[in-house]
Design brief:
single chain, mainly alpha, Rossmann fold, Dehydroquinate synthase-like, alpha domain, 2 domains, three-stranded parallel β-sheet, 12 helices, binds fe (ii) ion
């Protein structure tokens, strides 16, 4: 209503993923009736709204180049998305200087979100030669620069590398979508208040260990992209090295390694597993390995 009242011709989204998602959705609502809740799901928004200029101040969500906007559904408290190419920003401005002030823990959480996008897209059954190229470039850049950006926020080269890595990860994400890490993170987010990046970072090594038998070649490549010496190793050992490289990265970044460390009660795990299977099928179908309710519960138990 405010955007309409002031006669705006463009909406600028400046900030992290949530800020940009609000800008994208508000701009869209200027041309569509009803409320956001009328458009949950894929391709349900009929008309394009005002153009959006998206300017990220984190290197993580890739909302600036994504066709999705994610919100908490006030009715169910679950995270839900509006997905349509009509939400794509008209312009994305990637300026690393705007990310210099991001504190270390948010640098870690958002950077791990970007790495999760790249790895989940890379190992998705929908991956293609095109998305493999962008995902690999994203994984390599994030592996090269995330520790540095975390260790010294003013490192402009590292911040530039992270924005570029996030951009490539987002290109793969937009084509392929994410998998079980995001499925579990979104389900957990609906039952327990935890940030998207932290939840993904915590789940990523556990889901990778679970997925490994489905994508050993790709995980061996992940190890190599993250700088591990895989030459001469068996596929089994090299793929395990990929999982371990990601786990070590999360440890270096001070990411909590267990759900109990962030206060998730063990009694909640059944509900999270159930919600994951019931509400996250769209991303679970994209996961490298099929996930049953029992398996989701087992991954959560491991992570707890
Ligand atoms: Fe994400």
């Amino acid at each position: 209503e405010f955007i309409k009242a002031c006669g705006a011709q463009v909406v600028i989204g400046l900030g992290g993923g949530s800020s940009m998602d609000v800008a994208k959705m508000s701009a869209a609502m200027t041309a569509n009736p009803g409320t956001v809740a009328d458009y949950w799901g894929v391709d349900r928004l009929p008309r394009r709204g005002l153009p959006v200029i998206a300017i990220p101040t984190t290197a993580g969500t890739s909302s600036e180049i994504s066709p999705a906007a994610v919100f908490i559904d006030p009715e169910t408290q679950a995270k839900r998305g509006v997905n349509t190419s009509l939400l794509l920003p008209a312009v994305a401005i990637l300026d690393p200087e705007l990310t210099l002030g991001l504190p270390p823990h948010l640098t870690a959480f958002t950077g791990m979100d970007a790495l999760t996008h790249a790895i989940e897209a890379y190992t998705s059954p929908r991956a293609s030669l095109l998305t493999d190229g962008t995902a690999e470039r994203g994984i390599r850049l994030i592996g090269e620069f995330l520790r540095r950006a975390y260790a010294r926020g003013q490192d402009l080269e590292a911040r530039t590398g992270m924005l570029a890595g996030c951009f490539f990860a987002g290109m793969a994400l937009a084509e392929v979508n994410v998998g079980a890490v995001h499925g579990l993170a979104q389900a957990l987010g609906g039952c327990f208040r935890v940030g998207h990046g932290l939840a993904n970072a915590l789940f990523l090594p556990y889901v990778m260990a679970f997925n490994r038998i489905a994508c050993r070649e790709k995980y061996a490549r992940v190890a190599s992209l993250l700088g591990e010496p895989v030459e001469g190793l068996s596929l089994d050992d090299a793929s395990e090295m990929g999982v371990e490289a990601v786990r070590r990265l999360t440890q270096d970044l001070g990411i909590p390694q267990h759900l109990r460390e962030i206060g998730v009660p063990r009694e909640l795990l059944d509900a999270v597993a159930k919600s994951c299977i019931e509400t996250q099928q769209r991303v679970l179908l994209n996961n490298a390995r099929s996930v049953t309710l029992e398996q989701a519960r087992a991954i959560l138990e491991e992570a707890w």
